[in-house]
Amino acid sequence: VQLVQPGAELRNPGASVKVSCKASGYSFTSYYIDWVRQAPGQGFEWMGRIDPEDGGTKTAQKIQGRVTFTVDTSTSTAYVELSSLKPEDTAVYYCNAVYLGPGGRNYWGQGTQVTVSP
Fold first, then answer.
1. Which H or E run contains 22?
2. What is the pLDDT of residues 25-64, one digit of tens each?
3. Cα distance between residue 99 and residue 83, in whole Å
4. Which of 1, 7, 27, 31 gives the lowest tally of CB atoms within 10 Å of its CB?
5. 72: Cβ–Cβ under 8 A, 6 or more apart, which residues?
């Protein structure tokens, strides 16, 4: 199983960023994709979840209105797009494939460093 993310993104405040997560080695539509971020010196923050089977999403209240979760099932790729970026959005962004069925499993991407700076 692999979840591959780009290494780093640099954006100006007010811009948008779209981070990809390409999955392989498992049934893409059988696992939810969670997005989690970790700012410098902070704990992990859950951003939201998408169900690749039907596109249904859940979003953390803190970032509602600025974040969009999508998937492309033809390429087994999940995306998170964050708009109106602020310096406090600087963090490592991770995708996490989560199976909630019997046995429960999850797999992590390696993370994408997003830096928001003038």
1. strand 17-24
2. 999 999 999 999 999 999 999 999 999 999 999 999 999 9
3. 28
4. 7
5. 79
